[in-house]
């Protein structure tokens, strides 16, 4: 067992850190305050190979491993969680899905542009009446001849506003429940897709989420990802990858807030000594660091298992659960350490605090992660019991 990062991982970390320092840090507060999608820096992320990190070069990606991906999402989210989620949705929720389940033709057509950063991809599962209960979909894809006619509404589609391509989950055979769900690659420039204005959000306000309404949108068989009825499994497989990415985002948010808080304790004085000299503050810093390191180890383990090609869904859920709750806890304490300064909208720490909350919600709430983890425990226990 070796906990040391490989040379290539350190190089990725340094490259991304430099990019973040020079290009993203100067605009991070402004784009969040003004709710502006950062088109130029997202383009640059594509040029650096950050939009399709784990996708082989022949399909427009950078051909890196999952640990490199986790490190890059963390480094970006440490300063700007909006850039972090734009990147992670494109990488894990879109590119990974097309790469894993797409045909050769689909990969050439629908993977190369988003993996190289030329366009953006999104993932569309949630509907107005159902989020966590993901198999209870109403969006209908009716087979008419060789085509599917799609009608329905999707909500909270991160990247949806800018995406050219979206992975859409719709019901083809309602009586079959989750076995009646099918996945489609939707081209949002075709007729029948209506995008809403971006949602007004608490945090990650430079990353746009919108509604997508489908009115007689026509998808051909060549635009179906996988077979009919395989959509739910495809969504779950993709979300395993996505949750590892959100865990990395949460680790980055927590790390960023921790660094800001630590720096502040070295500068600020109270009752005749520096903040860090007060034991109450030292205890906060010790707990913050410990939780962040534990969350990072869980995240790297999930990434390591993913790149090894073994089942990692409970590890991804454990990483997301622990890292997102860590991000919430650490950013709260980071504001507390800053006092009223931390409550100012001019300061980065409140932006990280607002961003942390969504990591406990999107790509499966903390409650959903606990369900996934608990079901795996029970499965393992039953197997052990049956084996005697
Ligand atoms: N990989 C592959 N298959 C899986 C799987 C996985 N990780 N998890 C479950 N499945 C399969 C099961 O094996 C089962 O298959 P069979 O019936 O063929 O045996 C099938 O899926 C159904 O499984 P369950 O009975 O466990 O399904 P369920 O209805 O109880 O739901 C759940 C399970 C984990 C709660 C799931 O509904 C879930 O993850 N819900 C949360 C959805 C979610 O994360 N939504 C966020 C969307 S993205 C977003 O946030 C917006 C954005 O843009 C960022």
Detail the topology: elements first, then pairings.
Blueprint: H1 7-24, H2 28-34, H3 39-47, H4 66-77, H5 81-101, H6 104-115, E1 121-124, E2 140-144, E3 147-158, E4 165-171, E5 181-187, E6 193-195, E7 209-220, E8 224-225, H7 231-267, E9 269-270, E10 273-274, H8 279-308, H9 313-338, H10 348-359, H11 366-387
Parallel strand pairs: 1-4
Antiparallel strand pairs: 2-3, 3-7, 4-5, 5-8, 6-7, 9-10
The protein binds acetoacetyl-coenzyme A.
| CATH topology tier name of the largest domain | Butyryl-CoA Dehydrogenase, subunit A, domain 3
Helix content: 40-55%
User: Structural class, from secondary structure content?
Assistant: alpha+beta
Bound molecules: acetoacetyl-coenzyme A
Helix and strand string, N-terminal first?
HHHHHHEEEEEEEEHEEHHHH
Question: Low-confidence spans: pLDDT under 50, at least 5 residues?
Answer: none
What is the general shape?
A: globular
User: What is the C-alpha radius of gyration, as a whole number of Å?
Assistant: 21 Å
Describe the structure.
- With 388 residues, the chain is an alpha+beta fold.
- It has three domains: 7-120, Acyl-CoA dehydrogenase/oxidase, N-terminal domain (Butyryl-Coa Dehydrogenase, subunit A, domain 1), CATH 1.10.540.10; 122-229, Butyryl-CoA Dehydrogenase, subunit A, domain 2; 233-386, Butyryl-CoA Dehydrogenase, subunit A, domain 3.
- It has helices at residues 7-24, 28-34, 39-47, 66-77, 81-101, 104-115, 231-267, 279-308, 313-338, 348-359, 366-387, and strands at residues 121-124, 140-144, 147-158, 165-171, 181-187, 193-195, 209-220, 224-225, 269-270, 273-274.
- The strands form three sheets. It has a four-stranded mixed sheet. The chain has a four-stranded antiparallel sheet with strand order 2-3-7-6, covered by helices on one side.
- A hairpin with a 2-residue loop joins strand 9 (269-270) and strand 10.
- The protein is globular, with a radius of gyration of 21 Å.
- The two termini are 30 Å apart.
């Amino acid at each position: 067992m070796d906990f040391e990062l490989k040379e290539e991982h350190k190089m990725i970390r340094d490259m991304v850190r430099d990019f973040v320092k020079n290009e993203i840090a100067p605009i991070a507060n402004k784009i969040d305050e003004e709710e502006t999608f950062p088109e130029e820096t997202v383009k640059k992320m594509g040029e650096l190979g950050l939009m399709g990190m784990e996708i082989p070069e022949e399909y427009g990606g950078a051909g890196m491993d999952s640990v490199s991906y986790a490190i890059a999402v963390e480094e970006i989210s440490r300063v700007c969680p909006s850039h972090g989620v734009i990147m992670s949705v494109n990488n894990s929720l879109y590119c990974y899905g097309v790469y894993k389940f797409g045909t050769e033709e689909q990969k050439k057509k629908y993977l190369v542009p988003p993996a190289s950063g030329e366009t953006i991809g999104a993932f569309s599962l949630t509907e107005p009446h159902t989020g966590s209960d993901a198999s209870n979909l109403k969006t209908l894809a009716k087979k008419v001849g060789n085509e599917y006619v799609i009608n329905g509404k999707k909500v909270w589609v991160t990247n949806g506003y800018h995406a050219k391509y979206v992975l859409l989950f719709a019901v083809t055979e309602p009586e079959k429940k989750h076995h009646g769900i099918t996945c489609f690659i939707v081209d949002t420039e075709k007729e029948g897709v209506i995008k809403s204005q971006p949602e007004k959000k608490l945090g990650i306000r430079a990353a746009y989420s919108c509604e997508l309404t489908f009115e007689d949108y026509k998808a051909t068989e060549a635009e179906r990802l996988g077979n009919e009825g395989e959509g739910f499994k495809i969504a779950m497989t993709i979300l395993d990858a996505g949750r590892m990415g959100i865990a990395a985002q949460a680790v980055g948010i927590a790390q960023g807030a921790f660094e800001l808080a630590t720096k502040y304790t070295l500068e600020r004085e109270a009752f005749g000594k520096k903040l860090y000299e007060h034991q109450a503050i030292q205890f906060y810093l010790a707990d913050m660091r410990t939780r962040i390191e534990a969350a990072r180890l869980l995240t790297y383990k999930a990434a390591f298992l993913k790149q090894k090609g073994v089942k990692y869904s409970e590890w991804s859920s454990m990483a997301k659960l622990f890292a997102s709750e860590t991000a919430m806890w650490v950013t709260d304490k980071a504001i507390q350490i800053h006092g009223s300064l931390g409550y100012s909208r001019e300061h980065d720490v409140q932006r990280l605090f607002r961003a942390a909350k969504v990591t406990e919600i999107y790509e499966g709430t903390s409650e959903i992660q606990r369900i996934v983890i608990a079901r795996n425990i029970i499965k393992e226990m039953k197997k052990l019991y049956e084996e005697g």
